[in-house]
Every structure is written in structure tokens, then in C-alpha cells.
Amino acid sequence: MIDAQLVPTPVGPLVLLSREGVLVAAGFTADPSQLFIRLTPDLRAEGLEVVDDLGPASEAVRAYLAGDLTALDAVPLSQPGTPTRRRLHAALREVKPGTTVSYGELAVLAGLPRTAARAAGSACSQNLIAPFVPCHRVLPSSGGYGGYYYGVPVKEWLLAHESGAIANPK
């Protein structure tokens, strides 16, 4: 069974989907089914159940929102992908809060040629576990915020939160 929890955040609800304590999806939506349908068929076959508390994953979100910007890093997660996509997602998790990289820089961090910027963009757009795999920390080299699956205002808020531009609740 895939367990789902909605965690309130200043930019709207964050849905967490977990299987046996491992996060398989997360995203800024009020509807768990919007993330569930993006899972692989074998995971969808397990079914979906909304629960009150996922424990460590939801605790990590609350700690992140309270100012512990590395709290999300300790949460175990699993998402499908090619070896290249997995390298890019792993490299994303190494981009520290309060910093950003370009798509080309992300490719280099993943040990891929700088010309793999398009693959980096694809890995970000297909990321199922935001903000735990922090694709919001990737900006286009041409400037601006670029796109974000959950909307640019959410990306802007996450970056402002991580840079200290937003006061953290105590």
C-alpha cells in the first residue's frame, strides 16, 4: 500500500507518498491522486491510502519549514529512472540549500558532459519527489527562475526560504 499524507506549508499543501517508509513521491498539491498517477504501474497496483502521519518524512518537512534546511536530506527515497536520470537526481541532492546551479552545472555535477544540460532539464521536469530532490535549486543560465512543475511562485518561495529571506516560524 502507498501511504499518503498532506502536510501544510506556507505555499499550500505538500503531499507525501511513501511505501514501507521510503518516499516515492512528494509535491505541492492538495490531491494525492495527482502524484499517485505519476507512479510506475507496479506501485499504483498497490493502492493508495491517506494516513494521518508518515513519521520521519513529515517530521523532516516540519523541521525544514522551521529552518533546518538540511532536514529533507536524511529521508530515504526511491524514484525510477535511467542511470543518467538517477545520477542527475543524486547530484540535485548535493546542491546545498541557499545555492543554485544552472542545468549545465547540474550535468557537470552528475559527471556528465556540459552538453547534457537538456538531460538535466528533463530530469528536473520528471522529478517525482519535490522538494526532497531539490529541482527548485536549478535556474536557467539565461536568467530568471525558469519553470517549475508546481508553479514559479512555489519555486520563488522555496528559494527565498532557503536563502533566509523569509523569517522562519519558531
UniProtKB/TrEMBL annotation:
SUPFAM superfamilies: Methylated DNA-protein cysteine methyltransferase domain, Methylated DNA-protein cysteine methyltransferase, C-terminal domain
Keyword terms of this UniProt record: DNA damage, DNA repair, Methyltransferase, Transferase
Ranges in a coiled coil: none
Known catalytic reactions: a 6-O-methyl-2'-deoxyguanosine in DNA + L-cysteinyl-[protein] = S-methyl-L-cysteinyl-[protein] + a 2'-deoxyguanosine in DNA; a 4-O-methyl-thymidine in DNA + L-cysteinyl-[protein] = a thymidine in DNA + S-methyl-L-cysteinyl-[protein]
Name recorded for this polypeptide: Methylated-DNA-[protein]-cysteine S-methyltransferase
Gene Ontology biological process terms from the UniProt entry: DNA repair; methylation
Keyword 4Fe-4S attached: no
Gene3D superfamilies listed in its UniProt record: Winged helix-like DNA-binding domain superfamily/Winged helix DNA-binding domain
Pfam families: DNA_binding_1
Species of the source: Nonomuraea fuscirosea
Segments traversing the membrane: none
Molecular function via GO: methylated-DNA-[protein]-cysteine S-methyltransferase activity
Methylated-DNA-[protein]-cysteine S-methyltransferase DNA binding domain span: 85-163
